């Protein structure tokens, strides 16, 4: 009985130490550069708000079309996932632009996620 209790405690301790090690690696590990536009996107570099709105709406419309398409919804490729992310962030970016505020984070993500969507469609 004592032996199985010790084994159980040892196994639990190893599990906790192992889990803590993995969690720390996830938090402190290098982040994946899944976007070519990590940093400043072309959208952020656009100064004219009217042109920027047009570009963001174009990306958002393309993303919405892919997110609604049964072809991509049922595909084994993750285009639908990236389309869903792109439409959300492009929508947020457009919302900010309607108040003439250029939110760099949402613009970067809008372009990045749209680029990823297109990459998985080809």
Could you characterize the architecture of this molecule?
- The chain is an all-alpha fold and 122 residues long.
- The protein has two domains: 1-30; 42-121.
- It contains six helices and no strands.
- The protein has helices at residues 2-28, 42-45, 49-68, 70-73, 79-98, 104-121.
- Helix 5 runs antiparallel to helix 6 (104-121).
- The longest helix has 27 residues, at 2-28.
- It is globular, with a radius of gyration of 22 Å.
- Mean pLDDT is 80; it is low at 11-31.
- Keywords: Signal.
- Residues 1-23 form the signal peptide.
- This is DUF1311 domain-containing protein.
Helix/strand order? HHHHHH
Class per helix and strand makeup: mainly alpha
> Fraction of residues in helices?
over 70%
User: What is the tally of beta strands?
Assistant: 0
Strand content: under 5%
Distance between the termini: 61 Å
> Roughly how many Å is the radius of gyration?
22 Å
State the major sheet: none
Mean pLDDT: 80
Number of domains: 2
Low-confidence stretches: 11-31
Number of helices: 6
Q: State the shape.
A: globular
What descriptors fit this protein?
6 helices, 2 domains, DUF1311 domain-containing protein, 76% helix, mainly alpha, 0% strand, 122 residues, signal
Quick structural gist:
The chain has 122 residues and is mainly α. It is built from six helices and no strands. The N and C termini lie far apart (61 Å).
Fold blueprint:
Blueprint lengths: L1 H27 L13 H4 L3 H20 L1 H4 L5 H20 L5 H18 L1
């Amino acid at each position: 009985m004592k032996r199985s209790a010790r084994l159980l405690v040892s196994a639990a301790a190893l599990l906790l130490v192992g889990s803590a090690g993995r969690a720390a690696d996830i938090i402190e590990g290098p982040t994946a550069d899944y976007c070519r536009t990590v940093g400043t996107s072309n959208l952020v570099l656009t100064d004219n708000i009217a042109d920027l709105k047009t570009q963001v709406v174009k990306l958002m419309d393309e993303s919405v079309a892919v997110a609604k398409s049964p072809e991509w919804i049922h595909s084994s490729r993750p285009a639908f996932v990236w389309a869903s992310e792109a439409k959300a962030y492009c929508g947020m970016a457009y919302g900010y632009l309607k108040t003439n505020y250029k939110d760099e984070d949402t613009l970067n993500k809008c372009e990045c996620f749209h680029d990823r969507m297109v990459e998985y469609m080809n």
